[in-house]
Design the sequence.
């Protein structure tokens, strides 16, 4: 038999695991059964290939279970199997052409960036649920997500693996500290990537732009909280943003006037972070003036003064 | 358009999906599967061969029987051997997240804000997040998008007033090709008949938008649209800057010249700037977290923008 390609190897591994007895298969069983493993030179290279394959399977949704005799380490006695229930889709999971078009748009918004491959593979999988023709009415729209923060990849990996991470975080007041958190979810809010994470039992929001060090994965596993806990934390942020109101005065017919689509000179806006709101306003220079809160107006003034000082 | 090459994991994912489709719906044409999954026919054949070549060599068990002759004729016909794989697995957390974030992003676009299909989809995919309270979508923008969509559907050019990066207003006739939504900004990508070039126009700088009776020429429809949206370059200059980690996006908002170096939490590099008047706002907004090192003319443009802002005087024109 010709040497197996990576796709053939992963497919064979999946089929072998699905056919495993209730107690699962040992690593040696798999090394004997999958042609690509059997034909490899063994040793470290084979172990690394197996580790990569386990990760690849999990990344595409194949729920590989590892049953260990040793509670702390995946040793030679570990047994591997795939939970049959992992292949069951919700009964009501059906998409109409418009929804499939929306999923395609959502997947394409990642373009070639991190998550792009996951999004594309999800789309392929969803299409296999039924030969539905995609609604092409959406083809003139091209949303694009931009995720260039160095921390994005390690955080996405840690969320998938449910492992805690450590990083240095600098708040808008300049105070910097080392944070060890359980990463739960990445969100894009008003153009800003936000990490929802649990730190000492409290669910908090971290702006990715304020993560000023590399993200280190501790590989310590944690149990994610329920979806209800995450939703509550998200709603708390919405409520917090709704309680922050900036009142600005805009110069008529200026760029800010058109940008904010004003019909009046005074506009009220909500914000989740005062420093970010200040940045948004500062971009328009003298086209607008902050009426309230005073702290925001002061922050903008101090910001411009800092710019003048550093470019004197 | 040539389809993207698939890596091993993507091909494996495609194999799982083909097995699910064929076992449920019966034999399929290779061309139909290629269209469904938006990949090349060669990719379909490779993925099917991955299924054909799957066997347990220890127990001498063939997982699937694939009719290779039929495949050579352009058909996918397979049946289960010893494999109990009958449908692809449900999505992984990472896959779900990628789609859920994309759907959340769509929900922030004005034309999808109240879309019932999108709402149902977000509920189905789960992990849907509550809408942000900070979204500010002017009704003018929503109307503009609707007009542009109508023009693109009817394949007609539009006329508008546009304020360019120097603050000058001009009348433009544009063949609209696509609306990009990047970060928080909308751009019209289209062929500007006035300048004779493919351009990106920020929607918040377009005024008096109307649809003309002129059709978009066939050759324009096929124009490749570049990925990046950078402003109109008139007199490009290389500007050396340093930025703290929080303001790293300065290097994403401009084309970068050479490599960017990171020392501790500081980034150092050079950006290509089309118009120095545009630079002031981009640097000043970070309140000192970005510093222009050279040339002096760029430093002075930034200083001037900040001084005018503090004094309450309107800054001179800026970027696209």
Sequence:
């Amino acid at each position: 038999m010709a040497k197996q390609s990576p796709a053939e190897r992963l497919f064979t591994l999946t089929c072998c695991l699905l056919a495993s007895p209730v107690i699962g298969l040992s690593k040696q069983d798999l090394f004997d059964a999958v042609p690509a493993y059997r034909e490899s030179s063994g040793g470290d290279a084979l172990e690394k290939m197996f580790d990569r394959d386990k990760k690849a399977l999990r990344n595409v949704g194949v729920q590989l279970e590892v049953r260990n005799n040793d509670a702390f380490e995946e040793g030679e006695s570990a047994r591997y199997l795939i939970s049959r229930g992992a292949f069951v889709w919700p009964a009501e999971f059906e998409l109409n052409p418009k929804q499939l078009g929306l999923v395609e748009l959502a997947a394409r918004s990642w373009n070639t960036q991190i998550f792009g491959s996951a999004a594309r593979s999800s789309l392929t999988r969803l299409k296999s649920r039924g030969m539905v023709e995609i609604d092409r009415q959406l083809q003139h729209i091209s949303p694009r997500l931009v995720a260039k923060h160095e921390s994005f990849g390690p955080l996405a990996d840690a969320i998938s693996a449910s492992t805690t991470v450590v990083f240095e975080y600098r708040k808008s007041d300049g105070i910097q500290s080392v944070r060890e958190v359980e990463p739960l979810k990445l969100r894009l809010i008003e153009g800003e990537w936000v990490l929802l994470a649990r730190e000492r039992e409290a669910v908090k929001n971290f702006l990715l732009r304020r993560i000023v060090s590399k993200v280190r994965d501790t590989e310590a596993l944690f149990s994610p909280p329920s979806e209800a806990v995450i939703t509550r934390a998200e709603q708390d942020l919405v409520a917090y943003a709704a309680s922050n109101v900036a009142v600005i005065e805009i110069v008529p017919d200026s760029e800010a006037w058109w940008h904010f689509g004003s019909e009046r000179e005074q506009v009220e806006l909500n914000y989740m972070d005062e420093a970010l709101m200040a940045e948004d306003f500062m971009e328009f220079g003298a086209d607008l003036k902050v009426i309230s809160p005073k702290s925001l107006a002061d922050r903008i003034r101090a910001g411009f003064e800092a710019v003048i000082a550093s470019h004197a | 358009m040539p389809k993207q090459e698939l890596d091993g994991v993507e091909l494996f994912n495609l194999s799982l999906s083909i097995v699910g489709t064929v076992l449920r719906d019966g034999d399929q044409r290779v061309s139909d599967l290629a269209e469904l999954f938006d990949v090349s026919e060669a990719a379909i054949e490779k993925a099917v061969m991955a299924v054909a070549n799957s066997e347990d060599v220890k127990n001498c068990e063939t997982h699937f029987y694939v009719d290779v002759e039929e495949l050579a004729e352009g058909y996918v016909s397979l049946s289960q051997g010893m494999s109990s794989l009958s449908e692809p697995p449900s999505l992984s957390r990472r896959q779900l997240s990628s789609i859920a974030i994309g759907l959340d992003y769509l929900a922030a676009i004005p034309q999808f804000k109240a879309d019932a299909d999108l709402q149902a989809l977000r509920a189905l995919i789960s992990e849907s997040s509550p809408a942000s309270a900070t979204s500010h979508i002017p009704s003018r923008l929503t109307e503009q998008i609707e007009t542009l969509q109508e023009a693109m559907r009817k394949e007609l050019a539009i006329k508008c007033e546009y304020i360019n990066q120097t603050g000058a207003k001009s009348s433009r006739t544009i063949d609209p090709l696509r609306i990009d939504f990047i970060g928080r900004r909308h751009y019209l990508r289209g062929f500007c008949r006035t300048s004779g070039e493919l351009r990106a126009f920020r929607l918040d700088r377009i005024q008096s938008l109307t649809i003309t009776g002129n059709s978009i020429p066939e050759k324009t429809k096929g124009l490749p649209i570049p990925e990046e949206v950078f402003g109109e370059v008139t007199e490009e200059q290389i500007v050396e800057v340093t930025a703290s980690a929080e303001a790293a996006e300065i290097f994403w908002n401009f084309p970068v010249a050479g490599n960017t170096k990171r020392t501790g939490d500081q980034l150092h590099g050079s950006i290509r700037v089309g118009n120095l008047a545009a630079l002031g706002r981009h640097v000043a907004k970070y309140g000192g977290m970005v510093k222009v090192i050279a040339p002096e003319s760029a430093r002075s443009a930034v200083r001037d923008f900040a001084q005018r802002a503090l004094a309450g005087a309107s800054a001179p024109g800026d970027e696209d």
User: Anything to note?
Assistant: Residues 291 and 310 of chain B are 18 Å apart (CA to CA). Chain B is about 35% helix and 30% strand. The radius of gyration of chain B is 26 Å. Residues 92-137 of chain B form one domain.
